[in-house]
## 1
Amino acid sequence: MEAEPSSDSPSGAASLPGVFGELYEAHHQQVYYLALRLLGDPTLAEDAAQEVFIKAWKGLDRFRGGSELRTWLYRITLNHCSTLRQSWHARKMHVTDDGEIDESTVGVSESPLRQLEVSELGERIQRTLDDLPEEYRVLLLLVADEELSYDQVAQLTNQSSDAVRGKLHRARKAFVQRFGKNA
Amino acid sequence: MKPPKQRLTQKSENALESTSEHAHELSGRRDFVLPEELLRADRQQTMVPSSLAEKLNQAVGGLPAPKPAPWWKRFLS
């Protein structure tokens, strides 16, 4: 996994200092995509990815390589996005006149920039992921990274590899069912 | 040639346990058997805003540089 940022790097990594530029070049696509699909908004995903890499920058000297770098960045991303979603959840739960809790708008930004996601398929994927339980959504997004093993996914989601396999089976089924409904 | 949705729906029941690559490309469209294959392709097509690197450069410019860590060279080489 060698990253050689050049002056014409389309990612912009060349503007970043030394090893941090290499870190960014090697992992920014995965970090941004995970944040995008967890948060459902390009602007929020960009902000989240920025926070993740700043945390990574600050933690570089503390990171001893006990876990692989990609896994470490994913953990930061998952924690950051989870905190954001919990914050939205707390803010956007409304009690209706009859005393019931209305969570219909939880977690989805209506930013106009959301429309910048031009791919119709991408929006359909987003709607499908939004319909899934968070556990399934995270599992599918992590497994989509072919560099992660089931053991690493298990570590990231705090469960056994067997549990990952079992839930992944159900997550795939749920995704397929909802993907069809979101046509 | 069916659109990805139909292909995904039709094949998923039989292929959920498969980890092999079944996607194929025809006339610029791909069929996906597993959801993660679809997500993988979606990720590859997703553009990361170029402003992210610019914002990061500004942000880390004001922070102290991390101490040298020898394992980085091994990891990235």
## 2
Amino acid sequence: MTDPARAAEATWSSFGLEASAWRATPGVVLSVLANEIRKGLLILWAHPAPIVLAVVTMTFFYLGVQFIIGQGRMPSDLLPPTLVAFSAYIFLHIASLAMVADLVEEMRTGTLGQTHLSPVSPSLLVLGRLGTASLQGVLVAALATVVPLGAVSITIPARGEALVPFALTLANGLAFTLLFAGIALAEPFIGEIHHLFVGVIGTLNGMYLPVALFPDQLESVARLLPTTLGIEATLKVLFEGRSLGDLWIDGSLPWLLAYTIGLTALGWLVFARNQRKAMRDGTLV
Amino acid sequence: MKPSSPIAGVGQPSAARLAHPPESIAVEAEGLSKTFHSLNGPIRAVDSLDLSIPAGQVFGLLGPNGAGKTTTIKLLLGLVTPDEGRVRLNGYDVARARGQAMRQVGAVLEGSRNVYWTLSAWQNLIYFGRLKGMSTASIRPRAEYLLRALGLWERRHETVGGYSRGMQQKVAVAAALVADPSIVLFDEPTLGLDVEAARTVKDWIARLAQEHGKTVLLTTHQLDVAEELCHRIAIIRQGKIVADLPVSDLLARFRPQDMYQITIRGRAVGLELPPGFQARAEDSSTVIVGRVEDPLHLYKLIDGLRDGGLPLLSVSQVQPDLEEVILDLFKGAAHDD
């Protein structure tokens, strides 16, 4: 334990040197980023109940819907592809919900203002928040996927190449998260808007029925939504034995890449614009 | 670890106890303006505000609710973008050199939790220290010192949400100070606190300037707080500074030098008073208050009381308090409008 008198000496004597020598070095930037993620995980750890509840309800809901679609039995042909879509949906849902809810809570309580008093750029703190949100999303998606895998004996082929389109699918989810975080900075009805969009994505991304079984027009609409293109590409690798080269040639991978980059850019633009607007309107804190 | 008295020395900052050269300006705002647009039309929250606060000074920004105090604080911190004007903290422009400017400042904001209630006091201090770019190793001794000095050390691992309002405010103060900023902004720091917690926070604010050379800007509408702590006070009304003076000058400027209060024993019935004097009965005495433009009139009045057999208890010059001064200022400003 530190002697308080010496601690006091250390506390007050070093000012000036530190303040004048401070620079946003890569080490400092990484430290601040890690600090932001650590804070998010500590808060998550303090309240694990919502996460546990989300895993249980979403898993039961998914299995229940599959049971209804299978007219009283589990449809073994639909379960593997829909489970892939389900895991992507859970990631998007939880990551975006965590990010938006935290941001709104911090705006309401004023801690967001305190975080803006950091010498590092607020954009960097957003990356930290995205890191926390994605960790939460991955954790819940993994748990919610593993339970049905074990409970109803679903087999998904292990193909390493599928990780590329699936990672881009998760990147879709993060871009969507960033976009909605940006909207949350300016829109008081963000809860309702988020609920609506997440509901549409859950209905149309293939977690109940593969998108290929949709009517043509609905299939086109579904492909405009985050995660759909990525899930289709992942399913092609997993269940049709296609390689990444095949996906590149048939246009699946370039489209997925372009969509992910486009959605990320849109998310970043909306966030930056609405952050400036919130600071102009005085609604950030 | 008891903080030293906040009273001694406050009034005029001595250069000797400042950690900065007397001429250095810690907080500087030039032509700061901000208008918010609502459904009811535009609201001019801050209007061409100029501020210049020397390093080591405790500066009070006083005004009624809605005067523009909190908006001013947020503008100074870069949390609200001004329509016009600029802010410099220790010479760093908040808009152009934001990183360096933010390293200079800590703040406790009003109507805000300031810290994370789901984290412990210790976790909060580590988080906010690292947020300022410090290493965990350098934060630990500072955090320990602050938590010990504020009486929170034994409960440092409890979540802040379980603390009393006063303890939560102490954690907010510690979080603002953990990175050892040279400028600290307090927005209504004692609002809603019990007497003991308010005393601790006030002692700390005084100590920051007296012992550690910090520059403190505090907003309050508690006049006793401002009068006790501040070297200098600016009065803000409708976003404009209507007075900006050292506390002693502010009081002296509005001190009615010729107002006297005379107390005599017993009820003075039918007493003839000079023009401008009023008498009121109080228990077993009578208090006479009035303006004495010529000191000879005062002596004449006292002679009259003696001749009338009325025992004189006291004669004193009436001292204004800050509240009276501010009310006078507001009346004057309203008249100008």
## 3
Amino acid sequence: MKRRGLFLAAALVILPVVDGNAYHLDVLTTAWLYALLALGLNLIVGFVGLLNLGYAAFFAIGAYTYALANLHAGVPFWLGLPLAAVVAGAAGVLLGLPAIRARGDYLAIVTLGFGEIVRLVVTNLERWTGGPNGLMGIANPTLGRYDFGVASAPYYWLTLALVGLVIWVSQRLRRSRIGRAWAAIREDELAAQCMGIDTLRLKLLAHGCGAAVAGLAGCVFAAKQGAITPDSFDFVVSVTVLAMVILGGLGNPLGAVVGAVVLTVAPELLREFAAYRMLLFGATLLVIMRVRPQGLLGTYGAPAR
Amino acid sequence: MSWQQVLLQQLVNGLTIGAVYALIALGYTMVYGILQLINFAHGEVFMLGAYVGVAALALLGPSVSGLPAGLAMAAAAMAGCAALGWGIERLAYRPLRRSPKLTALITAIGVSFLLQNAVMLGFGARDRRVPNPLPAVRWAIGGVAVTGMQVVIIVTAALMLVLLHRFIRRTRLGQAMLATAQDPVAARLLGIPVDTVIAWTFVIGSALAGLGGVLFGLYYSTINFHDGYLTGLKAFTAAVLGGIGNLPGAALGGVLLGLLEGLSAGYLSSQWKNAVAFLVLVLLLMFRPRGLMGEQVADRA
């Protein structure tokens, strides 16, 4: 299993050398971006069991953080990346605060409302965010003298590396003291509290970590596109990412990646039926929930030991 | 206009849209009360109601007009959406009765995407004009403009709420709904056909949403395939605002949300009205997570 995994990872790394098709690489880069989001959301929904319906807000915060920092202060990409993660993570902790009172579906609705508020603020604060037209002229990443520009392969490797990093961190986290405490909260919050787990702090931590990952993804997205508009961060994005997490198997980091790849690549394969794409997307969700509700790779992955 | 007139005008406008939210919120709250499911497809059912109404009017042709035509639109939308709601429950949700809650939620989102895109493919992505067969009446009461349509919407919504309340209090089915919402297992033990009760809950909620859709379409004279999303979301907000699972609460939440929107559209800007609605929702849930009238709902988490 482990050897097969390493083999697959190696194959993915050398793919741009073998297959220079820019379209293939772009689709996979989009898949890796979504995989980042799915991995981040998996920390919140999968590990701790806190349903979040406004996750695209953190993606937006990351993207706009880098865009504004770059346009107004000339902040380079490699500095923007941690900055976006920190700002989005702080927003995640802020949003986690209502979790003190609201639980279950109520928390889900708070997050949904938060997601809508962020999108509406970004759309309406025209002076700063350019309103519905968004921001343009955001700098691409550079590496020494090399500018990523509009090439495909560098973004592919960048996003793939980030996905690998976040999978690694996720797996480490899951087996750590924190991860086991998260699992305890997910299974029975009251019991976890009685066992002396500081549930509030750990929930805020999960929100912060999950949001920070979305911030990373947002920064890469803004740098890759060079232009962002509020449309890229609407409710459909939150829902799609959630569907990816659940499709792959809740709480299973590898599952989140598989879910992201399936739900990004499948619509591309169906491009001939462009008009029916979203229809089929909806139907796919229905069928998968009916046939395999635990997700493709199964829930929670291997036991946390 | 004096400031009193401006205020009253915004309140009238807000009350009208609030009445529509209330109609939709009833369906959300009934389903949530029984299944603890956020029925994301409900907003789509509402949107389809307007389309069914338009189709019914086109079928009738120009020979029928005025009140009969309006009633036919409403009846067609209610019947069509009731059937749709029944079908959704039967095909999408019932097979998942024993699955985790998230499974049903994702299914609901899937149904919502499916319906939205089916309507887009069937009726086109552009705004569709909703012809209004009712005579356009307009009164000026103390400098405040009130249209006939506004009166129709508010009166219809109030009437439906009273009818629903009586139905639940006075009929066997209504009592069975209450029992199922309280404890499905005990209800089944007492011989209540829980699955039938759930199916009826969807039928009634969807019919009300369909009616809301027709009223919405007639009020704004246009309908679009993605109108269901935001309006549905706000109606759900209204249901939560009033305390989910609570029928009068849903109506109160709808009206309050409508008024709030009217006021923020009038005094801030119409761009910000949606943000204000959601901000209130977030604040309310932070400080009063059970909603305004939600104390009756037990925590089943």
